[in-house]
Amino acid sequence: MRRGDCVDRWNADGESYWTVTEGAMMFLVLLPDGRRHIAFFRFPGELLCPQLDGGFVDYTLQAVCDTKLCRVGSLSVSQASLNGAQADHILDTACTRIARAGLHSLVLGRLTAPERIATFLIDVILRSRLQMEDGVEFLLPMNREDIADYLGLNSETVSRIFTRLRKVGVLALPRPGRAILRDARALLEMIPFEAVEQTLMPAPRIGGGQGSSNGEFGEENGIDRPGRRGAH
User: Fold this and answer.
1) How far apart are CA 43 and CA 46, in angstroms?
2) Closest Cα partner for 78 from 68, 88, 87, 89?
3) How far is 114 from 73, CA to CA, in rounded Å?
4) Comparing C-alpha atoms, which of 55, 58, 72 is closest to residue 21?
5) Are 29 and 57 spatial neighbours (Cβ–Cβ below 8 Å)?
6) Cβ density class 157-189: b for 16+ within 10 Å, e for less
């Protein structure tokens, strides 16, 4: 799939599952007046399914960039319910998404623009980091408009904050679709609450993919635990 390609009738039968194997997908809603809201993103190794992704909402499932999906038919899903490990994975995924949805409501309702972007970046890093040689490299395939529509900001604000993060050495953007976190401590100090660590921890992945969810949210993945401000 290319950027902008959509999956037609992805929730028609309510039982089929997909896994992102490369790239990223976004779930969006187009309002009657033309405004766009992006509800969430999915990265390599993460599941796409109506039961976990709000099949009752008329979302459009669209590719963020060049993306590959692997479809798991309904028969395989039924068989998976008899497999303890796969059933546990689906349950863990559901719990993680509920917690992430609650956090995102807080982000949209109470955080400032820099705090929203910092929380978003930490989430993306935990779900799509690639390597840790000179900083933490991670996938960032969405453009400024995508990020703005996800965080309830305008694209000019997003561009201004990204420029500031680059100038102070927190973030580097070496090539399209990739970013490098240079100063994890500075980024974490922009987030006003510690609960983000537990809330954003991704469920174990299935089906491989570009990202890696190994390790905890600590020094072993290049992100240590600085002291933070208390919640406001």
Assistant:
1) 6
2) 87
3) 41
4) 72
5) yes
6) bbeebbeebeeeebbeeeeebebbbbebebbbe
CATH topology of domain 17-83: Jelly Rolls (2.60.120)
Quote the pLDDT of residue 172. 94
149 and 188 in contact (C-beta within 8 Å)?
A: no
pLDDT value, residue 180: 93
What beta strand segments (E) does 35-82 contain?
36-42, 47-48, 60-63, 68-72
How far apart (Å, rounded) are the C-alpha atoms in residues 41 and 142? Answer: 9
What pLDDT, in 10s, does the model give residues 156-182? 999 999 999 999 999 999 989 999 999
Q: Which residues partner with 133 through β-bridges?
A: 135
Q: What amino acid occupies position 133?
A: E
Per-residue model confidence as pLDDT tens digits over 105-151: 778 888 999 999 999 999 899 888 776 666 789 999 999 999 999 99
Predicted model pTM? 0.76
Mean pLDDT on 91-110: 74
Q: Which numeric CATH code is attached to 89-221?
A: 1.10.10.10
Element spanning 202, H or E? none
Arithmetic mean of pLDDT over the chain: 76
Q: How far apart are CA 116 and CA 118, in angstroms?
A: 6
**Contact present, 22 and 210 (Cβ < 8 Å):** yes
**Helix (H) / strand (E) containing 103:** helix 84-110
Report pLDDT for 214: 35
